[in-house]
Design a protein that fits this description.
Radius of gyration: 18 Å
Distance between the termini: 32 Å
Strand content: 15-25%
Number of helices: 9
Strand order of the largest sheet: 2-1-3-4-5-10
Order of helices and strands: EHEHEHEHEEHEEEHEEHEHH
Amino acid sequence: MTNVLVTGGNGQLASCIKDVERKYDNLNFIYTDYLELNICDLNQVKVFLKTHTQIDYCINCAAYTAVDNAETEADKAFEINAIGAKNLAVVCKEYGVVLIHVSTDFVFDGKKTEPYTETDSTNPISVYGLSKLQGEVEISKVLQEYFIIRTSWLYSEHGNNFMKTMLKLAETRDEIGVVSDQIGSPTYAGDLAECIIHVIKQKSKNYGTYHYSNEGIASWYDFAKAIFDFSNIKIKVNPIKTEAYPTPAKRPVFSVLDKSKIKNNLKVDILYWKESLKKAVLLF
């Protein structure tokens, strides 16, 4: 039996892991939220791993993800996204646990016009992006046996995300404006959950940083249109420029991720984003 610790156990990605875990008989998942395991407390992390059955993998789903709030709550963002990640890395090293850490496309500045590879220079333009990048740096300083998986535009039937926000807005509006000049790849958290479990199941030693999102490219406007189309909701969606919808945090204008490395090294199959969106809409 392979024991897998999942931090941030009530969040979106962890909830998707819970949805699919029943398919994997020889994996035992242990879910914790911050009340059971505060990753910002190094001693608490040490005690947890010392007192539990041998943990083989730790999937770090715990994160500060309020992108705009991070601009005024930088200390909190860095505490969870950087210090918390470092604490996990330190204790995982001590107990021989393989760390799988989820990161973000926000580590890039969005100035490229072709998909970002894992070796492209990072240059975050928001506090959130800076805090997530620092988490990556701390992990790579401490560990050799780790997987950092950067993803983008994560959504599902769980938690707070763009798909659920759009569907909620459609309950009270018949017209909406959505940004059309930010380009990326929507990622269904259920697919990311399957990807992570696939990595664990094959016990891969191809450690390092990887990119994962669903295939294809879209704007937030395209994403919103598809959500309403698949939900059979009649609502007028107007494309707007980023300047027309100012936010406290800057977003990368282009953050499409190149998935060649994860497909080649870890043999991961990736669905087109609209295929996965159809599944998510039906589940919601």
